[in-house]
Each structure stands twice: as structure tokens, then as C-alpha cells.
Design a protein that fits this description.
The complex is a heterodimer of chains A (323) and B (521). With 323 residues, chain A is mainly α. Chain A is built from 14 helices and two strands. A two-stranded antiparallel sheet of chain A has the order 1-2. Classes of the chains: A mainly alpha (323), B alpha+beta (521).
Chain lengths: 323, 521
């Protein structure tokens, strides 16, 4: 177990290094940050001078070496756009993203698993068919459309919820949370649903498929023969045996939720890392883009590690096989 | 019983929460981007200037009609060697310090430092002389007739505050540390910062000690600014009543906003013209099938490109009516624009074909058009329309529409044959257009246009103080440009603001929000 964790952490360094190399070689195609850093009046000489000061004319490999050297010392530089330290900016924005991901994962899991079990058992009921056809919308509509649709329905038409932003924020010693106030929940609910829909659909369909398979297994028939209650059979015998693939998918998806909450955050003006990243791309804010992409790589590695550890806990066969 | 108790509790909470609202006019507004820094000299960019313009003030400013008005200076007079400004007395910074001539000298020198993004505006000032506590003379290298026009965004900081907080220059590009002025402000302006969460909410409160507190009609006590990056979300916030005002509603949503209850849209012609530049200076175009010569070097080709563009159709179809087709690259409101020259060249594809044949291109030629897709109103759509129009006269255009961060460097580096550009004129004087777009070596003149007389006039009008002579020279230069056609002018943009009926905000051609004039009912 310990060896596994160490091995994985070593791999993570490799992953982050390759992500940063690839992203650095792409930055050249995003455009010239200097154009965004000065007004239209700036002279051409001034632009050249700034390019030199920022080292933008150096070969990519030199720029990358400089980034790596500083990053190893924990210095990710100042944002070109906001002129503040990058690590500080990411740390400030992270709570908003993590809370959004947390709530949307709760929604996706809660609804996805329950509906998956239900549609797996009650295969032919009209409610199952409704849920299944409704879930097609979740996978086929782009996040952007779903988000705007929810805003127009709940904020403009019904006026129940705010259209955008993060309200009711309380500062808990550096961690700004919006989960402790009613206003906070009112503002998080729409973006969380938007972000959760795709994951929810996948979990629902996966759990359903697994349930259909497990319900045919001998041990379920045996459990029935023992006279166990339907409830006990469905949830403690059947569901438990569907969980390994579900945990894998959830793991990968939670990484994806953190990394790619970009669109949801932009639509809802949710002040997290995703919104900051998209603004940085517009501006060609290289320090933020590179630090953020490394951070995302780290998130994926850590989540996958946690998933592997969970396998050990859930499935005794893996535990035994490892010995 | 239970319900009524709940109601009572709600009513009590409501009464508590809204108690100050009876006395306060809160102006809630949204636009696309947040201010990047509170340092008023660090970044010359729309949203940043909009925020800093509420906190800081300059010597002179513009009213919604674009007329120069006294702000921190009460009067100014020009002489051959500089301008003398009489400063307003009794003005205090937000921290209580007195505003004096020292602060003006310090701020202008700060604006001239290498890390400032406003140094071009003050580049004509050689030194600042303090005559007394409330009089300064800005020395210039010879006469400078338009100096006051150039100072409208040179904001004044308190010298002692800047020294105490170690921000005597704007943040350097090489800096490793964030400076104090990025997130803290101490101006003399009509509003003070109460709280600021970037990309979320910035709250400003009325500065009751402001010198103009009783002089202006504005009755806002509190400003809540919410940047909302997504245009559809921004409109939704207005429709749902969460904000009272949107600075930049998308053109295609204006009809919908106007048809909503309690909302209105107001428009004004903007000080920004949109046009195409053609590189006539290079020997051979980079992206054309014509080798060994440059079709754009021939004025007949440039005229044909102009005649082939149906500017009225672009206005009607692409711009939803919100543009003014033009024959100039600078709009009315800028000194030098005349109604005769402002008329667009008629749409005449037959004449265009004939001119191309005359010039030796009966079958047209190919060229690439470089276009931004996130900078001007409907920029990419305009370029698509242009491609279709030019195809009808035989010019096969290959469109390359990219983000502004990729587009503008092509113009800066002179690597584009044919490009879209828009130009606003903060000084409202033609000199700004000639110096950047038409004179040889102008930093945005990627056309290679180089006319000796135009260059000469550009230099002369920077120092000519005789109004009649200067006006005549500006007119002469525009007539030369009209004949030489280095650019294809398309239109002047229109600004639209969307707001609640309870807001009365005067719109200005520079798109600046002026809260001191905003009245809330």
C-alpha cells in the first residue's frame, strides 16, 4: 500500500512535467500577451522592451526552463493580467470551485445512484422510461445551453434564484464558503445542477447496467431463497457489487469536474479557478495558464490515487490478489 | 399561527435589512470585465479606467457631451512654452490629506515613468513647475495646442500616500511582488472603495467630502459593480432586476430588452471607426497569387476595394442598424471630421470591376484578410460579409478570423496584407489619428502609407496654435487621404446601454459611465 502511494506520487511528478511541457509549447499559438498588457497608445519600442523584460522572445525551451526553475522554488510568478502572485490567486479561487464540485458531485451521486438502482430493478415502469429518456437530455445538451436555460427559467421567469454570482459568502479564516448561508445555497444550486447533469447521467446509466447484470447473478437468487428483504438484497448485496466500476468513473469525473468547471463557471460568473482560467486564456496570461494546468494534472493524479486506494477497501479480491 | 409567526419574522428581517435602503440610492450595474488593477497608471484598458475614474480624478475631464470641463483644475491657459493650471482649493484625498501642486507634479512624473501605461498622454510635458500651492505650469517642448485634451485620464495620486506605501511608480513588468496600489486606492474622486472581490462584487460609497458633492445632479449613494463575463447571463441579470444597468448588452438582444417591462435602451454614436487596412508599402503581398508586384500599391485597386463594399448592407444586415457607414476613418465628434468627407463612397461593383481591369487585374487576385473575432461589434461577421462582397468583383479573399491576442500582433509586426482595425480617439482631435494611423512610422500604420505632405502636417498640427491655420492643415491632410485611400472605411460603431426605467444615465460617445450625472428615481 505504502509502496503504491510512493510510486504514484513519483508518477505524478512525471505527469505534471509532461503537462507543463506540452502546455508551454502551445502558449505560443494563443497570442501575444503584450498586446493586452498595454493600451493602444503604447509605442512599438515600448512593446519590444516589455517583451524582452518578460523574456517572451527567448526560445520556448529557455522560457520553460525558467518557469520550471522558479516553480520548483514555489514561485509561480505574477499574473500578467491582475499583477498579483499566481499561487495566491489560485488559492483564493479554489474554495469556490471545490464547493461547486462538491455540491454537484453530491447531486450527481445521490440522484444518479438512486435512479440507477430504481431503473435497474423496475426496468419496465413508466417512471424508469421517463428518467432514462430524460437523462438523454443530460448527455446531449451542451452545458452552456443547460446553464442559460436554467437561468432564464429560475432567475428571469420565476425569479426564485439569483441568475449568477456567488452570494452569502462567509470567510472562515482564508476559506471563503457559501455553504453556510441560505443566500449561498440559493446561488450555488443552479451552477451545481448544471455541472452535475452530465455526470449524473453517466452514473445513472452505469449503475443501471451493472444492476441489471448483478440481479441475474447466482448470489442474488440465493439471497432471495434465503428470504432476505428486497431492500436488503437491492442495496447491500446488489448495489455493493456494482460499485467498483462506478467508483472508477466517479473518480475520473471528479477530476474532470474540478478541471473543466470552466464553462459552468463562466456562464454563472462563479468566481472559481475555471472562470479565472478562461479569462487568462483570453488575455494570454501565461503564468496563470501554466500554473493552473500543472495544478489540474496534480488533481487528476491525486484523484486516481484515491480511487485505487478505494478499490482495496471495496473489493476484497483486489486486496487478496495484491498479497 | 405558525405561518403568521414566520411572516412576522420575515417582515422583521426584511425591515432590518432594508432599513438603510429608504435613504440610499443603490446603483447596481454590470459589464463584461472587472478592473484589472486599482493603480490608475498601470493599465490603460476600458473596465480598469471605468473603475479608477470613480476613485481618482484628473485635472480636466469630459462631460457626457464630450466637452472639456474643470475637475481638479479650475482654469488653464496656454503659452508658447507650456500650460498653466489653476488648481481647485480645499480638495481632500479619501484619507483626508490635502490636494496640492506637489501631488500634480508627482502624479505627472509617475505617469511618465517607464512602467506607466499612460506615458504617451504626458510625453509632451518636459517638466512640471510648481508656481504656488495651487498653481502648476506644465512645461512643453514648444507650443502644444491639445495638451488639456491629452490629460483627461492622467489621474492624480497623493504624493505622501504613494511614498509611504512604496508605490511611487506603477508596478514593473519584471516585478516579483505585488505592489500596494494594485488593491488599494486613495483618490479625490466622488466614490470610495468599501469592499472589493475581483470578478464578484465591488462596492463603492459616495464620498460626501467630495468637492462636487452638491454641484452635480447625480444622487447615487452606493455603487455595486458586478462583472458578468457571459453576455446572455448579463442580460438575464438585467431582465430579472438583479442589476439596474448593463454597459455592454449584445446588439442582438437589444430588441428583447426594450420589449421587457421597465427596461430601456439608449444609444449614441461611438468615438470609434472600423475600417480595413491594405499594405501598399511592401513590394509583394505575402498572401496573394500576384507575384513580383503589389496590387494594393495601385490607387485604382484600393478604390475598387472600397467601391466593392456595400456598407449600407453591412449596416442593415450585420449591424442590425447600429452603425453609421462612413467615408472616413474617424467619426463626427473628432475635430477634423466633416460631413462631406464622412459620406461613404457609393457601392458600385461594376465600377470596381472596371478599375481592377484598368489596373491589370481583370480576373481579380487573391489575398488573406486578417480579422479579430472578439474585439469589435460583430467583427467576424463583418469580415465574412466583406469576403462575399469582394468575391463579386473577382477578389478572392481568404478570411483568417482569430482572437485579438493573435490578431493585433500581426498589425504591430507588419505581417498582414489586409486587416481589420478599429480606432477610438480619446483626445477628440485628428492629430491622434494621423500620428498613429497615417503618418509614416505611426505605431498602428501597417499600410506602409507614406505621404510627405501628410507626414509634414502631422508634425505641424502638434505645435500649431493658430486655430484657423491648424484647421486648414487638418482639412488639407484629410483631403489627401481621401484621394489616396490607404484604408477602406466601413462605419462608426454605436454604443448601446441597457437600463431600468428608474435610472437616468446620460450616455457619452466615449462609453464612460459618469455616476455624478446618474439620477435614480
Amino acid at each position: 500500500m505504502f509502496a503504491l502511494i510512493v510510486r504514484r506520487l513519483l508518477q505524478s511528478i512525471l505527469v505534471m512535467a509532461s503537462v507543463s511541457v506540452i502546455s508551454f509549447s502551445l502558449f505560443n499559438f494563443v497570442g501575444d500577451p503584450v498586446n493586452n498588457m498595454v493600451g493602444q497608445d503604447a509605442t512599438r519600442e515600448d512593446r519590444v522592451r516589455i517583451r524582452q523584460e518578460l523574456g517572451l522572445d527567448d526560445p520556448i525551451i529557455v522560457q520553460y526552463g525558467r518557469f520550471l526553475g522558479n516553480a520548483i522554488q514555489g514561485d509561480f510568478g505574477l499574473s500578467y493580467r491582475i499583477k498579483r502572485p499566481v499561487d495566491q490567486l489560485i488559492a483564493e479561487r479554489l474554495p469556490a470551485t471545490l464547493e461547486l464540485v462538491f455540491v454537484s458531485a453530491l447531486i450527481a451521486l445521490g440522484f444518479g445512484i438512486t435512479a440507477g438502482v430504481y431503473t435497474g430493478i423496475q426496468r419496465n415502469s413508466w417512471a424508469s422510461r421517463l428518467v432514462l429518456s430524460g437523462s438523454l437530455i443530460g448527455v446531449s445538451l451542451p452545458t452552456f445551453i443547460i446553464g442559460i436555460g436554467l437561468i432564464y427559467l429560475f432567475a428571469v421567469h420565476l425569479r426564485w434564484l439569483p441568475s449568477s454570482g456567488r452570494g452569502g459568502v462567509i470567510d472562515l479564516g482564508g476559506w471563503k464558503t457559501s455553504l453556510l448561508t441560505i443566500d449561498g445555497w440559493r446561488s450555488i444550486i443552479l451552477p451545481a445542477i448544471t455541472l452535475s447533469l452530465f455526470q449524473m447521467t453517466i452514473i445513472l446509466r452505469l449503475v443501471r447496467a451493472e444492476m441489471l447484470e448483478v440481479m441475474q447473478a447466482d448470489f442474488i437468487k440465493f439471497a432471495r431463497a434465503r428470504g432476505l428483504s428486497e431492500r436488503a438484497i437491492n442495496f447491500s448485496h446488489a448495489l455493493k457489487n456494482t460499485l467498483v466500476p462506478v467508483v472508477t468513473i466517479i473518480g475520473i469525473n471528479i477530476g474532470g469536474l474540478i478541471a473543466f468547471s470552466v464553462i459552468t463557471e463562466t456562464v454563472f460568473q462563479w468566481p472559481g479557478t475555471g472562470l479565472m482560467f478562461i479569462q487568462s486564456v483570453d488575455f494570454v496570461d501565461v503564468p496563470i495558464m501554466s500554473a493552473y494546468l500543472c495544478f489540474v494534472a496534480l488533481v487528476f493524479v491525486v484523484v486516481n490515487l484515491v480511487v485505487d486506494i478505494l478499490y482495496f477497501v471495496i473489493d476484497p479480491r483486489i486486496r487478496l490478489g495484491a498479497k | 399561527m405558525r405561518q403568521s409567526r414566520w411572516l412576522l419574522a420575515t417582515a422583521a428581517v426584511f425591515a432590518l435589512a432594508s432599513a438603510p435602503a429608504f435613504a440610499e440610492n443603490v446603483f447596481k450595474w454590470a459589464s463584461q470585465g472587472d478592473a484589472l488593477t486599482l493603480d490608475p497608471m498601470s493599465q490603460n484598458e476600458g473596465p480598469t479606467n471605468a473603475m479608477n475614474g470613480q476613485l481618482y480624478e484628473s485635472l480636466v475631464t469630459r462631460d457626457p457631451q464630450m466637452k472639456l470641463q474643470p475637475e481638479l483644475a479650475v482654469s488653464w491657459t496656454g503659452a508658447a512654452d507650456g500650460w498653466t493650471f489653476k488648481l481647485r482649493e480645499g480638495v481632500k484625498f479619501h484619507d483626508g490629506a490635502d490636494f496640492t501642486a506637489e501631488d500634480v507634479k508627482f502624479s505627472i512624473e509617475r505617469a511618465q515613468s517607464p512602467s506607466s501605461d499612460f506615458k504617451e498622454q504626458v510625453s509632451g510635458i518636459t517638466s512640471v513647475q510648481i508656481i504656488d500651492d495651487h498653481t502648476v505650469k506644465l512645461m512643453t517642448d514648444g507650443p502644444n495646442p491639445i495638451l488639456p485634451n491629452q490629460l483627461t485620464s492622467t489621474y492624480i495620486l497623493d504624493k505622501d500616500w504613494a511614498e509611504k506605501n512604496n508605490v511611487t511608480t506603477p508596478q514593473d513588468f519584471k516585478a516579483k511582488q505585488e505592489t500596494y496600489a494594485v488593491r488599494n486606492a486613495n483618490g479625490t474622486g466622488p466614490f470610495k472603495v468599501v469592499s472589493r472581490a475581483p470578478d464578484e462584487l465591488t462596492v463603492l460609497a459616495r464620498n460626501t467630502a467630495w468637492w462636487g458633492d452638491k454641484l452635480f445632479p447625480g444622487n447615487i449613494d452606493r455603487i455595486e459593480y458586478r462583472p458578468i463575463a457571459n453576455a446572455a447571463t448579463r442580460v438575464a441579470a438585467l431582465l430579472s432586476g438583479e442589476v439596474d444597468f448593463v454597459l455592454d448588452p449584445p446588439l442582438q438582444d437589444l430588441k428583447r430588452i426594450e420589449s421587457a417591462d421597465g427596461l430601456k435602451v439608449i444609444t449614441v454614436a461611438q468615438i470609434r471607426s472600423i475600417f480595413f487596412g491594405m499594405d501598399q508599402g511592401v513590394a509583394e503581398l505575402r498572401t496573394s497569387d500576384v507575384k513580383g508586384k503589389n496590387p494594393f500599391a495601385d490607387v485604382r485597386v484600393r478604390e475598387a476595394m472600397n467601391l466593392a463594399m456595400d456598407k449600407v448592407a453591412i449596416q442593415r444586415v450585420v449591424m442590425e442598424g447600429l452603425s453609421f457607414p462612413t467615408g472616413m476613418i474617424t467619426p463626427p465628434g473628432v475635430f477634423g471630421n466633416t460631413p462631406e468627407n464622412d459620406k461613404p463612397l457609393p457601392f458600385d461593383p461594376e465600377k470596381a470591376k472596371a478599375l481592377l481591369a484598368d489596373a491589370g487585374y481583370p480576373n481579380g487576385f487573391t489575398v488573406q484578410l486578417d480579422c479579430p473575432n472578439n474585439r469589435y461589434n460583430n467583427d467576424e461577421k463583418i469580415c465574412q460579409a466583406a469576403v462575399a462582397m469582394l468575391a463579386k468583383v473577382g477578389v478572392k479573399v481568404n478570411l483568417e478570423a482569430v482572437s485579438k491576442a493573435q490578431h493585433f500582433p500581426k498589425i504591430q509586426k507588419r505581417t498582414s496584407d489586409f486587416y481589420m482595425l478599429g480606432w477610438g480617439v480619446p483626445t477628440l482631435d485628428s492629430h491622434y489619428v494621423f500620428a498613429y494611423l497615417l503618418a509614416d512610422g505611426g505605431s498602428w500604420n501597417a499600410t506602409g502609407y507614406n505621404n510627405a505632405r501628410v507626414n509634414e502636417i502631422t508634425a505641424a498640427i502638434a505645435t500649431e496654435t493658430d486655430i484657423d491655420k491648424r484647421t486648414a492643415m487638418i482639412e488639407e491632410a484629410w483631403n489627401i487621404v481621401l484621394a489616396d485611400k490607404p484604408y477602406v472605411p466601413l462605419h462608426h460603431q454605436v454604443i448601446a446601454w441597457a437600463m431600468s426605467n428608474k435610472v437616468d444615465a446620460p450616455i457619452g460617445a466615449d462609453d464612460a459611465l459618469r455616476p455624478r450625472f446618474i439620477v435614480m428615481k
